[in-house]
Amino acid sequence: MLVRILGASAGGGLPQWNCACSKCQAARSGVIPSLTQSSIAVKAGGKWFLVNASPDVRQQLERLRNGCEDNIRSNPIAGVILTDAEIDHTNGLMILRESKQPLELYGTATVKQALSEGFPVLRTLTNYCGVNWTVLETDASLTLINEQSSQLKVEVFPLSKKPPKYMAQSNDDIWAIGLTFRDVATGGVFTYAPVLSELTDSLRERFEASDCILVDGTFWYNDELQRLGISKRTAQAMGHMPLGGSDGSLQQLKTLKRPRKILIHINNTNPIHQPDSEERMSVEAAGLEVGYDGLTIEL
Predict the structure, then answer these.
(1) Considering only CA atoms, which of 88, 84, 130, 91 is closest in space to residue 110?
(2) Which superfamily does 39-185 belong to?
């Protein structure tokens, strides 16, 4: 199984178009790498399965074209798995409307509802390339089979009940999910959790049973945006557990013994982008890595 980080940044990317924070300015000047918006790709032979379709999907898919057939309408992906209905994870579907075949989409019933009513991308896609939708059930699994009969087993687990801003608040609906991939041939196990509001015992067990995890590293401080005068919303109000502090996710993630631990979905304001920052050194001292565009993991 191969896992490739296509975009390691949170929504807006690094640099973000309307931001002049120190991290965005450093990226503009080439001091630190620029990053595209959150997405990964997974495969076990054959074509890739794209996980989330970011607004940067066109340039991200260009990085997957090695070994792709050279006919006039070649396609490097077998399907798109959506972990939520956030615009940052679904807006790229509009670019995929040019697909020659109906798009193979995987997502929960709540995501399908959101993309049919609140942000009606599915209506547009139906009138262009067409859509084949496979409903993902939380606490269930399915097997992905590509054209070479390579198999990936995917386990779906709940992460958040927070709906996207364009949808009304629901009661107990699950709006964001995580994914655990198992390579049937090699036995490799990989878990993807781009949103982490709390680290429960069940999540800890899942992470410990994985060979590698890609996990939410959005903010360092709970009041990170408030400190910069960008927003009054806290990290926790946005559904993200901050990394820093005695009760932050870093202190808990560093105790995990088995998996390789990589932070993704990193906001442009997060100080861990800067290699010489105290926060970055704390991450590395805890045995975690800071993800970047193009990082490929083989399991």
Answers:
(1) 84
(2) Ribonuclease Z/Hydroxyacylglutathione hydrolase-like (3.60.15.10)
pLDDT at position 222: 96
Structure tokens given for 143:
């097997």
| Average pLDDT over every residue of 115-139 | 96
* Domain definitions of the chain by residue range: 39-185
| Residue 197 in tokens | 């509001």
266 beta partners: 9
> Do the bridges between strand 39-43 and strand 2-7 make them parallel or antiparallel, or are there none, so unpaired?
antiparallel
CA 226 to chain centre: 24
Question: What residue type is assigned to position 186 of the chain?
Answer: T
With cut-offs at 50, 70 and 90, classify the pLDDT of residue 158. very high
The arrangement of strands across the sheet holding 176-183 comes to 140-145, 151-160, 176-183, 189-193, 212-216, 260-264, 288-290
Task: Give the torsion through C-alpha atoms of 266, 267, 272, 277, to 10 deg.
Answer: 170
Its pTM stands at 0.95
CA-nearest of 249, 220, 254, 253 to 235 is: 220
- Give strand pairing partners of 189: 182
* Separation CA 205–CA 197 (nearest Å): 16
Helices (H), 109-243: 109-116, 121-128, 201-208, 224-227
* SS3 call for 284: helix
List the one residue out of 59, 60, 93 whose CA is nearest residue 79.
93
